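ARCHIVE CARD
Drawer: 12
Card no.: 0347
Subject: one protein chain, sequence and derived structure
Cross-reference: see card 0346
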Amino acid sequence: MSAKRWCISFLCIMLAVLVAIMGINVVIDPYCYFKAQSGDNYTLDEDDYLRELKAQHIKHFSDKYDAYLIGGSKAGALRTEELKKIDGYNYYNCWVMSGNFQDYEAYTKYICEHTNAKKILLQISTTEIKQFDREYRGAVFETPAILTGESKIAEMATFLFKNLKLSYEKITDKDPKYPCFETGERNLTKYYKFFNENKGTDKYYDFLMKKQVDKFYKDFKRGIKDRSDVIKQCVDSLKRIKSMCKKHNVELQIFFGSIFAGQMVAFESDCFYDFLRQVVEIGDKVWCFNTFNDIALNYYNYYDPSHYYKEVGDLMIDTMAGEPCKYSDFGILLTRDNVDEHIASRRRKLAEWKAFFDEHGTLPYKSLDDPSLVPKIYER
């Protein structure tokens, strides 16, 4: 075989290989990137590239919505039908895994510039002050090109040439899928199933506590890492979010979502209090549900240390909508006038928790039969 024919054959083989790789990645679509382009593929679950799906859904279906909920995975439990109670608007739940201000700002910018939104409801989960972005965690955590304005062609090329190992893993994965709902809410079926099968047992306690909360206790004992640099990034981003909303006449409402007591102890610090104060200064009136309360101390109100059940979300929505809450200290409307008093109260409560922890090696958690268990969860 001549050198020329050999080179042509080699190039043809290489071209065929590249076409095969692209074809497999399009057909198998391990991250469901290509399936997300229409914005209406509701078979995608939390392991897929939901950031892209949600952006594409907003692009194609913004005429269905008056308002958007932006937040991390905690916000996935907030039902859009319930959110109507706050202001009567039709919401799309734009939660993302590992929420962060880089994504919150990108979604806000896109919504303000490409939709007729009347309102953005932003949930802060507290965990945002760990890192400003989450792109280091992998492809599905990257902010998509449709939001950043970067090359869509370049982005598509990266998904066309993904390692075929990913497609193989997609084919052989037998784990059940729990696709998100059409209006964006997270599918919590597997967590409710686990709750119903294991409530009141050591297995439920061990899953939430022994395997995941002990690491938070370490911070509780040794002190919280200084996060001033990240907090500055988050606050600067929040200021830009507020400015964009004001420029486009979009109402911005901010609130802090409920957080399990076992995780709270990893954040309560001067850094967090400084962050809280600055958020209130920007947001003016900010509902805060990550307070020291009995609901936070009842681990049956949470499906893991980082996430509340939908019923807790309903209670938050009811409270923001003006309905009276029978649970003491659950939810406080913070303003510039009362935020310092609230922070002082948090310091006193934290000292009480620390004293209890020093004596008992745990926190004063509540039981399955305690009134702090949100009733509808018990009834399921």
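Annotation on reverse: The mean pLDDT is 91. DSSP finds 17 helices and eight strands in the chain.
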